[in-house]
Amino acid sequence: MKFKGAGETAIHTPQLQVTAALLRNGSPLDDVVADVLEATCNAVRNDPRVAKWDWRQEEIDIRRMCCDFVSKAPNSRPCCRSRCEPPSRRR
């Protein structure tokens, strides 16, 4: 996984593949977000081009990616689905 990597090595593709695999295997959504965010940070740690990266926005984007997967996966666990609902709709 590389910042501005070519093709499959770009950051988004591995994030997408890993989040889907972890969620499909039953990992808690919050853990998936934290793990993928940490892996992303580690992958770009020494790249000066990401010095001003908005890590809070990256976390939001990873969570959105996870929620998109959960909404498309009919067999996703109910606890994951509830973590993706807007706060006003949570029980």
Order of helices and strands: HHHH
Binned strand content: under 5%
Total DSSP E strands: 0
The level of helicity is: 55-70%
Structure write-up:
With 91 residues, the protein is mostly helical. The protein is built from 4 helices and no strands. The chain has one domain (10-44, 51-89). The radius of gyration is 14 Å and the shape is elongated.
Task: Indicate the topology.
Elements (H helix, E strand, L loop, with lengths): L11 H13 L4 H16 L10 H18 L5 H7 L7
Question: What structural keywords apply?
Answer:
91 residues, mainly alpha, 4 helices, 0% strand, elongated
Short précis:
The protein has four helices and no strands. The protein has helices spanning 12-24, 29-44, 55-72, 78-84.
